[in-house]
Amino acid sequence: MMASTLEDRFRAGDPRALARAVTLAESGLDAARPLLRAARETSAARGPGGTVVLGVTGSPGSGKSTLTDALIAHLREEGKRVAVLAVDPSSPYSGGAILGDRIRMLRHHADGGVFVRSLASRGVLGGLSARTMQVLALMEGAGFDWVILETVGVGQSEVDVAAACDHTLLVLTPAGGDGVQAFKAGIMEIADVIAVNKADLPGADRTVRELMAAQGLGHHDEHTWFAPVRRTVAAKGEGTPQIVEAVLAHRAFLGEDGLQERRRRRAEFEVRTLVQDRVMRRARELSRDLYTRVARGELDADTAADELLAGA
Ligand SMILES: Nc1nc2c(ncn2[C@@H]2O[C@H](COP(=O)(O)OP(=O)(O)OP(=O)(O)O)[C@@H](O)[C@H]2O)c(=O)[nH]1
Ligand SMILES: [Mg+2]
């Protein structure tokens, strides 16, 4: 009998084939392409409601990993298969925090219904990288019920999460006026669900009240989705079912059309990020001479940019 190809095994749902595909995609190798195509085909065949793609973001140390871990446990109890991608866009290297995440989530490793990966990769503009998007697409294509992207909310990456996922869960804490900060920074706008985590610490009720008051202040009409604000104690798994409920409520709010639109937006974000990567690489490869000519006034910057885009 002929040995089946990696693509066949990926399509058949072999977890080792997924692991291999993810490694290829992470490395940006062309060998990942047929697998990425296969993933998109299987996702498309399952329809936009097939996989819940949830982004989990928030300030460093707010409890994103702990909450993700608690979500895995709860979803597994409901028989759902879960894939998690933990990304640290602030670090170009595999940092300690990511290692910590992996160790924490290791308790699920013997469970075939759970797939955890971490990625220390930064996009060219400081947000999520195209590779991150591709790993998500592979996880979705592998047929997980939930795919969770955890990323620390710093700068561009926070905005990117909303473009990369169906739903965004913002994890805040009672400490240090986190809620008010989020409002001021315009971060609340990207949140579909808000967890006030560490609700065992003082000030949780006040933070919830402030957040809800702030939501009322923002621009809204009868079509506005008000992100449900839920208290959680992730360390004890408290409030996790309510988070899942809130995400599913947002899913129902989006409906089939809304989810299809999110999927299109995710594809757009992936393609755009690839384009950015390539253009930036090209810009770096261009001879210093071109930039010197611009600096000397021999060539204007617009023409230089035109030449770059024309593949000159
Ligand atoms: N008191 C309390 N501590 C918690 C809770 N959830 C998480 N923590 C603690 O908060 C610290 C940070 O938790 P993480 O889950 O690593 O937070 P994170 O947001 O993933 O952190 P980064 O990925 O490094 O940004 C850990 O020491 C957790 O044990 C909670 O509900 N209550
Ligand atoms: Mg973490």
From TrEMBL:
Keywords: Chaperone, GTP-binding, Hydrolase, Kinase, Nucleotide-binding, Transferase
Domain AAA+ ATPase: 50-273
Residues annotated as transmembrane: none
SUPFAM superfamilies, alphabetized: P-loop containing nucleoside triphosphate hydrolases
InterPro entries: AAA+_ATPase (IPR003593), GTPase/Isobutyryl-CoA_mutase (IPR052040), GTPase_ArgK (IPR005129), P-loop_NTPase (IPR027417)
PANTHER family: LAO_AO TRANSPORT SYSTEM ATPASE, LYSINE/ARGININE/ORNITHINE TRANSPORT SYSTEM KINASE
NCBIfam families on file: lao (TIGR00750)
Protein name: LAO/AO transport system kinase
